[in-house]
């Protein structure tokens, strides 16, 4: 997986599938917006560490891998980047529970990628798409476990924005009916396509993994 030409040649034949997935994810997002979602509370630092430990266990179980090096977790107070993995540390915003847990799963997946799967995930779009897949799995797991669809909201917003970004990049004449599916994250992808002349690595990788199934 490399530059724009390679991504376009790989994803263009799946344009109709991308349309179908955009309808599916967009419809889910509309249903979630009609619900009175309970995103839960934000946590103190000590509570964050306990939640992070649980999420790490869930991710390791899902991937069947336990990294040799421990990963730290902290709030991003004073950090310009909102949610990142850097130097064996997951750094996150003070997010409500239903957004925090999938976000922790995404960033901790990067730790496992770097520690034990770096030969497989040596491409940024591949890394981000794989992390989105794990994030989605954990969101679905907690939504079922706690009977709370709020866990699905953030990852579905990401799916809609990123699928639509790839669709608009590939399609010369986009279907106007699909443009009704809107996400607050659309602006991020619009800026990415403007600056990079292609969708973000998150969008390319996420679309690839959604199509992969």
Concise summary:
The chain has eight helices and three strands, in the order H-H-H-E-E-E-H-H-H-H-H. It is mainly alpha-helical.
Number of helices: 8
Name of the CATH first level of the largest domain: Mainly Alpha
In which range does the helix fraction lie? 55-70%
Shape assignment: globular
Give the strand order, joined by hyphens, for the main sheet: 1-3-2
- Write down the Rg: 17 Å
- The second-level CATH architecture of the largest domain is Orthogonal Bundle
**Whole-number total of structural domains:** 2
Verbal overview:
This protein has 213 residues and is mainly alpha-helical. 61% of the residues lie in helices and 5% in strands. The chain contains 8 helices and 3 strands, in the order αααβββααααα. It has helices at residues 4-11, 15-33, 45-63, 97-116, 124-145, 153-170, 186-196, 201-212, and strands spanning 72-75, 84-86, 89-92. The chain has a 3-stranded mixed β-sheet with strand order 1-3-2. The mean pLDDT is 95.
Task: Note the main attributes of this structure.
about 210 residues; Arc Repressor Mutant, subunit A; mainly alpha; 2 domains
Please write out the topology:
Layout: H1 4-11, H2 15-33, H3 45-63, E1 72-75, E2 84-86, E3 89-92, H4 97-116, H5 124-145, H6 153-170, H7 186-196, H8 201-212
Parallel strand pairs: 1-3
Antiparallel strand pairs: 2-3
Helix pairs in contact: 2-6, 3-4, 4-5, 5-8, 6-7, 6-8
């Amino acid at each position: 997986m490399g530059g724009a030409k390679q991504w376009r040649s790989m994803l263009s034949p799946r344009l109709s599938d991308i349309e179908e997935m955009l309808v599916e994810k967009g419809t889910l997002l509309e249903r979630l917006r009609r619900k009175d979602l309970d995103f839960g509370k934000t946590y103190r630092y000590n509570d964050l560490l306990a939640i992070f430990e649980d999420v790490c266990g869930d991710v390791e179980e899902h991937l069947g891998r336990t990294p040799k090096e421990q990963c730290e977790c902290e709030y991003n107070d004073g950090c310009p980047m909102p949610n990142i993995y850097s130097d064996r540390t997951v750094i996150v915003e003070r997010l409500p529970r239903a957004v925090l847990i999938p976000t922790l799963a995404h960033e901790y997946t990067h730790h496992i990628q770097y520690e034990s799967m770096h030969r497989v995930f040596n491409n940024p779009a591949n890394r981000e798409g794989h992390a989105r897949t794990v994030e989605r799995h954990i969101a679905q797991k907690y939504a079922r476990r706690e009977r709370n669809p709020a866990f699905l909201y953030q990852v579905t917003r990401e799916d809609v924005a990123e699928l639509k970004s790839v669709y608009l990049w590939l399609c010369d004449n986009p279907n106007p009916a699909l443009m009704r599916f809107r996400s607050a994250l659309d602006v991020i992808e619009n800026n990415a396509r403007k600056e990079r002349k292609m969708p973000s690595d998150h969008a390319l990788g996420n679309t690839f993994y959604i199509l992969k199934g």
